[in-house]
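User: Design a sequence. Structure:
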C-alpha cells in the first residue's frame, strides 16, 4: 500500500495549484478530481472484489494526509468519500455491483437520520433533508440515513445523487471547496435492497473476511477524518518554509506540533488496524481513546498553524481550513477530551 501513498504525494502539486480556485468556487477543480482518481484515491475503501484497494486505515490516513498537504478541502472530501464507500460495502451484493460498476465512483453520505422513509410496495418513499453533505455537487451516490416508519429505525439509503435536490447553501470561511451543501429528498423511491438498517453497519464484524469490515464504524471514521488535520499542519510548515530562508523559533515549534498531530492520527489508525486484523473486541476505553486521539490531532494541527500565522493566501486558507475542522462536532478537541475523561478516571479508580 506504500505505492498509494507515493501516488498521493505525487499529486500534491496539482491539488495545491487548484486550491485557490476551489476556495473561490466552493467546489473541487476538475483537475483535482481527475488527479485523485488517477492516483487511486477514490478506490481506497472499495472492496477488492469490485476493483478497489480495500486499504487498511494506516494507508488511508497516510494518503489523505498527503492530499491535505495540497488542499485541505480535497483531503476532507476524500475522507468522506472513503467513509461512505465503506458503508456501501455493507450493502447486499446487487447494490455493491450497481454502485461500484462506475469506475472511481464518488459516494458521500450523512449519518444523522434527518429524513423519513415510509414503506411502500417494493421499497420506501423518502422525504427530508440532510445538511452538510460533503462533495454532493460532485458525487454520484449518497448513503444518507433516515428513520424507517413506523418504528423510526435508523437506516442507510443508497441513492443516486440525481434523485436528490442539491441546495447551494455552503457559504463558509473554511473548507469551502468541500461543497458541503444540503441535500433534499422529495418523495424519492428507494428499492428495498438499497435500504440497510444502520445499527448492524455501525457494529464491529469480527468474522468478516475483509479486515476493513471488522472494525466498528465510528473508530474507523474517526481515524479517517483525523488525517486532513495532520496534513494541514504539515502544509502550513511547508508553506511558511517556502517564504523564508530563515528558521525562526516559531517554525521549529510548528514542526513539533505538526509531528504530534501526525502521531495521534497514525496511532488511531494503527490501533484500529491492529484490532481489526485479530478481530478483537472493542472496549469502552478503546473507543474513548480513539476519540481523544482524534481531538488531539486536530488541536495540535490548529496550534501548529496558529503559531505560523496567516501570512499570505496559502497560509490564510490553511488556517481557515484547520479552524473549520476544529469546529466539527465529531472533531472538536474539547468534546473528545470530555468523552475520554470519565473513562480514564474510572480506570484510575479501579487501580
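Assistant: Done.
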Amino acid at each position: 500500500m506504500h505505492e498509494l501513498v507515493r501516488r498521493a504525494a505525487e499529486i500534491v502539486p496539482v491539488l495545491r495549484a487548484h486550491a485557490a480556485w476551489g476556495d473561490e468556487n466552493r467546489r473541487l477543480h476538475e483537475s483535482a478530481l481527475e488527479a485523485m482518481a488517477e492516483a487511486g484515491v477514490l478506490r481506497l475503501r472499495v472492496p477488492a472484489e469490485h476493483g478497489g484497494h480495500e486499504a487498511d486505515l494506516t494507508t488511508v490516513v497516510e494518503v489523505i494526509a498527503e492530499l491535505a498537504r495540497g488542499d485541505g478541502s480535497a483531503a476532507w472530501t476524500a475522507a468522506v468519500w472513503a467513509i461512505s464507500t465503506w458503508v456501501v460495502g455493507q450493502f447486499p451484493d446487487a447494490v455493491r455491483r450497481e454502485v461500484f460498476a462506475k469506475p472511481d465512483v464518488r459516494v458521500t453520505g450523512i449519518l444523522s437520520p434527518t429524513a423519513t422513509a415510509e414503506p411502500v410496495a417494493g421499497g420506501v418513499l423518502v422525504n427530508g433533508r440532510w445538511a452538510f453533505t460533503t462533495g454532493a455537487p460532485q458525487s454520484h451516490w449518497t448513503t444518507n440515513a433516515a428513520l424507517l416508519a413506523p418504528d423510526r429505525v435508523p437506516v442507510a439509503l443508497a441513492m443516486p445523487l440525481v434523485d436528490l435536490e442539491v441546495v447551494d447553501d455552503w457559504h463558509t470561511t473554511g473548507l469551502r471547496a468541500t461543497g458541503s451543501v444540503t441535500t433534499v429528498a422529495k418523495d424519492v423511491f428507494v428499492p428495498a435492497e438499497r435500504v440497510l438498517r444502520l445499527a448492524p453497519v455501525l457494529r464491529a464484524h469480527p468474522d468478516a473476511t475483509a479486515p476493513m469490515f471488522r472494525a466498528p464504524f465510528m473508530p474507523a471514521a474517526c481515524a479517517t477524518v483525523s488525517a486532513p488535520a495532520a496534513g494541514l499542519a504539515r502544509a502550513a510548515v511547508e508553506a511558511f518554509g517556502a517564504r523564508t530562508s530563515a528558521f525562526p523559533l516559531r517554525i521549529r515549534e510548528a514542526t513539533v506540533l505538526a509531528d504530534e498531530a501526525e502521531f495521534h492520527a497514525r496511532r488511531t489508525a494503527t490501533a484500529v488496524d491492529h484490532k481489526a486484523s485479530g478481530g478483537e473486541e472493542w472496549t469502552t476505553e478503546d473507543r474513548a481513546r480513539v476519540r481523544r486521539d482524534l481531538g488531539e490531532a486536530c488541536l495540535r494541527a490548529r496550534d501548529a498553524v496558529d503559531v505560523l500565522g496567516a501570512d499570505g493566501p496559502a497560509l490564510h486558507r490553511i488556517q481557515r481550513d484547520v479552524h473549520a475542522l476544529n469546529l466539527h462536532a465529531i472533531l472538536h478537541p474539547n468534546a473528545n477530551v470530555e468523552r475520554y475523561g470519565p473513562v480514564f478516571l474510572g480506570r484510575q479508580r479501579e487501580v
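The mean pLDDT is 94. Residues 288 and 341 are 9 Å apart (CA to CA).
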